[in-house]
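input
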Amino acid sequence: MKAVVVCGSPRVKGNTQMILETACDVLKENGVDTELVLLHNKFIKPCIACEKCKQLKDRTCSIKDDDFHPVLEKIIGADAFIIGSPVYFGCATSQTTSLLHRAGYVARQNNNFLKGKVGGPVVVARRAGQNFTYAQLVFFFTINEMIVPGSTYWNIAFGRKKGEVVEDEEGMDTVRTFAANVAGLLYKIKQ
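output
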């Protein structure tokens, strides 16, 4: 079993990356081969709704001059997909939404290859906007017929300065539980 965890933060080693590394650790402890993909050093253009992915039918996007396809291939090859984003003005980062818009469009035009994958979002906020961002991201998972396991709370945590997220014990525990539930669900599905 394989999981791909994508960090949509433009900050290197920021709070979102830290909490996602914790999720990766839990997945690995539960026997899931896990890869963390950082978008801070990648350039992913936004979807232009050209609908060429519908015509091509080869699980690719017409935009070829960015870093989208290697990340998409990792998602396609995984059984589980988790994405994390900090809150920017009440929503996910542009890196996060560009990836999801294009991945979702390509998937839905190609037999919905995301259907049945396990996963969900993780959101980090300084103070507010976390519920809107969490909803924004979870909508991506549900419209693509993915399976989103629950946790003890929504997968959100708080922190502004680098490292503050680890002080949010409830947020960290929520994400640990979520990651363990992702692993547990993968095992049940694979039986």
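quick obs: The chain has one domain: 2-190.
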